[in-house]
Amino acid sequence: MSDIHESVSKISEWDGSVRQRPVRADRVFCGSSAGGLCAAVTLMECPVDKALNFMRQMVREMQSSYLGPFSPNFLLTEHLRVGIDFLFPKHAHKIATNRLHLSVTGNNCNKIITHYDTREEFIDVSYILCIFVQ
Q: What are the transmembrane regions (predicted)?
């Protein structure tokens, strides 16, 4: 449980530093995995309190089961997709195009994605950042 409190503390610190310096229109963000997701959240200027509330709710649901995140009833991937969809604005793909460079790896190949035609495509790419590729 202390890891969760520490994560919330770190996110709150990050939120404070982001609010002090608003996102400039000419700024480009890059990242992969969790860093890519943080870059997307920063670029979209997502309300951190909204993200924290979602995270807390997901953790409570996870802890309600004896097996936690390993419970067959807890679908982490579905929670992640819903959370990403919930946090990003309706025009996220327009904000992200040519300003958010995400590194995605699959099938032993790495690709940097910079253009997003639709919101669904942007959500899919953001979702892929959360998946561990073996």
A: none
Q: From CA 95, how far away is CA 108, in angstroms rounded?
A: 29
- pLDDT tens for 62-114 read 888 888 888 888 888 788 888 888 888 999 999 999 999 998 887 788 889 99
DSSP sequence for 55-89: HHHHHHHHHTSTTGGGSTT--HHHHHHHHHHHHS-
Q: Where are the beta strands (DSSP E) in the chain?
A: 29-32, 100-106, 109-113
Residue type, 126: S
How far is Cα 22 from Cα 15, in angstroms, rounded to an integer?
A: 11
Are 92 and 37 within 8 A, CB to CB? Answer: no
Tens of pLDDT, residues 7-36: 555 555 555 555 555 556 567 888 777 778
Residue 36, Cβ density class (10 Å: 0-12 exposed, 13-18 middle, ≥19 buried): buried
